[in-house]
Amino acid sequence: xxxxxxxxxxxxxELKSKDYKTDATSFWCAGCGHYGVLTGLLRxxxxxxxxxxxxxxxxxxxxxxxxxxFVNSYKMHTLxxxxxxxATGVQLARPDLSVVVSGGDGDGFSIGGGHMPHLARKNINMxxxxxxxxxxGLTKGQCSPTSRQVMKTTTTPYGGLEEPLDPxxxxxxxxxxxxxxxxxxNVKLASQLxxxxxxxxxxxxxxxxxxxxxxxxxxxxxxxxxxxEQVPDGHDTSDLVAAMATVNxxxxxxxxxxxxxxxxxxxxxxxxxxxxxxxxxxHKDYDLRKIIDLARP
Length: 297
Ligand SMILES: Cc1ncc(C[n+]2csc(CCOP(=O)(O)OP(=O)(O)O)c2C)c(N)n1
Fold this sequence. Notes:
This protein is α/β, with parallel strands linked by helices.
């Protein structure tokens, strides 16, 4: 049985979702899907009772990467595409903290694309929320790796030349141990997935489809809502091949499968490091800071 995240037991608090919201002024446009992601996250934090003192939200650069500003937590607004590696350092140094990464499809899969397979295969214990609006929002409407080919953008005025990347297939392929998807406007499902992802020990990837009313006029809230279809109750979340087949079948029909698509259990990188340090170094209580101190000349 996969032991739950250590923080979840030790530091529970009773707060309402509004208590997790800072009073930072939002710069997101009216009607932006990112608001749904934020509401879903705040709700899941309250449901679990996460202590903000043990929560770190990490992001790169983009409209989506502003999310940590609004979350009552420690936070790191890092470089474009580099949230994953920074969050990895946080998680390995302090495995007792809950680490939530948020960012856009450009941040995660263009400039940051090289990091994604490694977060998944190393099974870093964190939640990665992709706020996928199929476009670069902050820089005003360039095409992203998830832009649909038919979309005309400032960099593809006649439509795209490339097939879009599917973040879900990508994550299933590279070994993420928790993979879920929802329309950001379906706050109930989004918050449920984030909650389960936070309780999951390992790399939890959640793709939240988020409309950009300013720079993407084809993937509107209504279009996402109409295309999303929750996987049936009988869906076997432990079967990787079934998860891939479900995604492929849906794609052929222009549907987007939502809900928990895949979940498995395997040691996390910090657990493997703790085991190694105990076995090889003879340290009973693994603490990276102590190890670093010991290694100092
Ligand atoms: C090294 C570097 N290259 C390019 C940029 C410019 N830039 C800032 S955000 C961004 C993409 C934003 O799109 P996305 O990550 O999808 O997030 P969104 O704004 O749509 O939420 C780009 C290209 C940058 N800040 N740093």
